[in-house]
Specification:
The chain has about 375 residues and is mainly alpha-helical. It contains 9 helices and 3 strands; from the N terminus they run H-E-H-E-E-H-H-H-H-H-H-H. Strands 2-1-3 form a 3-stranded antiparallel β-sheet, with no helix packed on it. One of its GO terms (cellular component) is membrane.
């Protein structure tokens, strides 16, 4: 507070009201009732004053009102005093009682989550980087898919690292590094659109290739003008909605509890894309005779649906949680679900790529095959 003498002369004080009481509406109270119903009244007498708020079992929003001897017209004629300037700093103690953690109730726990996520990415990369690199160098029918999956996963890891750096600084100064939060959102957006382009291109390409050349090199990325046009249209629409959503949201989170029009449109788009992929995959599976290929397509459908539907489902389920928990539930849930989706697709394409590569050549190049021309000889 800049002018403590003036504050004492005016008998200035801050009135704090917790927004927990059912039916409590401060706008409907008279001036005197507002003064009398305040749970805390802090008198402004010194340049710096510390006030502890009673412990509450759950995070609570507080409303602060300024009052002095002239507030309800009881002090007579209001003298021509200058303005009284003061700053309020609120500190939320963490579970250990440390009051210098700057995280709000909506953000508490995200820092630890990103730390564990980065650790998991590091351990997984140490274990699987060599076999993945060998699979990428070898090539094969699944080579392009594996490159897109690796790029999307790397971008998710970089996004988690940038979020961790931003929140680590935010814990100390309450400001953080906003550019890191923006870079994290950008990396996640690029990962989202690359995965969308791959999934749409694969599904539409498989559908178009079923009638054109069903026997040639199955299950690879078979691009065509129609599949490219559909994939690019979906990518452009989702990219525009992601940019619109990030422009409207001020907090640095890649996923939100969708309180904006852009967020609701983005959820609608993901549901529509999931229905489109479901119809395409149903057409493929219903006409496929090979049980092994049907199992391949079903596993692929599982990974697709987890990727697209986890966000809408988690937003819907988040309404059962308290308001301060919804953002965290959506953010953590979507990141984990999409990581599971990528793992499912990795496992699917890595385990099946060699089989399809060999089986497509077996009828003409491998010995001791059960081809029609040789059945009588073996």
């Amino acid at each position: 507070m800049e002018n403590a003498t003036l504050a004492m002369e005016k008998e200035s004080r801050l009135l704090l009201f917790p927004e927990t009481e059912d039916g409590f509406d401060i706008d409907n109270l008279s001036c005197h009732d507002r003064l009398s119903k305040a749970q805390l009244s802090i008198r402004l007498r010194e340049e710096e004053h510390n006030q502890s708020i009673p412990h509450l079992h759950s995070p609570t929003a507080w409303m602060a009102l300024y009052a002095d001897r002239y507030t309800c017209g009881e002090g007579g004629i209001i003298p021509a005093h200058g303005d009284l300037t003061f700053t309020i700093l609120l500190f939320n103690p963490d579970s250990a009682g440390n009051p210098l953690e700057h995280f709000s109730a909506e953000e508490a726990g995200l820092h630890s989550f990103y730390c564990l996520l980065i650790l998991a990415y590091f351990v997984a990369s140490c274990i699987y980087i060599q076999p993945l690199w060998m699979a990428l160098r070898k090539g094969g029918p699944m080579h392009t898919v594996l490159k897109v999956l690796s790029t999307a996963l790397a971008l998710q890891g970089i996004s988690a690292l940038f979020n961790y750096i931003h929140l680590a600084r935010y814990a100390r100064d309450g400001v953080g590094i906003p550019i890191m939060g923006s870079l994290a959102e950008f990396c996640d957006m690029v990962s989202q659109v690359s995965m969308l382009y791959m999934l749409l291109s694969l599904c539409v390409g498989w559908t178009l290739s079923k009638n054109r050349k069903p026997q040639s090199r199955p299950l690879q990325w078979d691009s065509s003008p129609a599949s490219k046009a559909l994939a690019m249209g979906g990518v452009a629409t989702q990219g525009a909605l992601l940019l619109w959503e990030q422009y409207e949201e001020t907090e640095h989170h890649s996923y939100h509890a969708q309180r904006s029009i852009a967020g609701l449109l983005l959820i609608s788009l993901r549901i529509i894309l999931a229905l489109l992929l479901a119809s395409v995959l149903y057409t493929i599976i219903s006409t496929e005779r090979s049980a092994l290929k049907r199992d391949f397509y079903l596993s692929f459908a599982k990974g697709c649906f987890i990727w697209f539907l986890c966000h809408p489902v988690l937003v819907l389920l988040s309404v059962v949680f308290n308001e301060h928990q919804r953002e965290k539930v959506v953010t953590i849930g979507v990141i984990l679900c999409q990581a599971i989706s990528v793992v499912i697709l990795y496992q699917l394409f890595l385990s099946r790529s060699l089989y399809w590569e060999v089986s497509s050549l077996s009828s003409v190049s491998l010995p001791l095959t059960m081809s029609r021309g040789g059945r009588g000889r073996y």
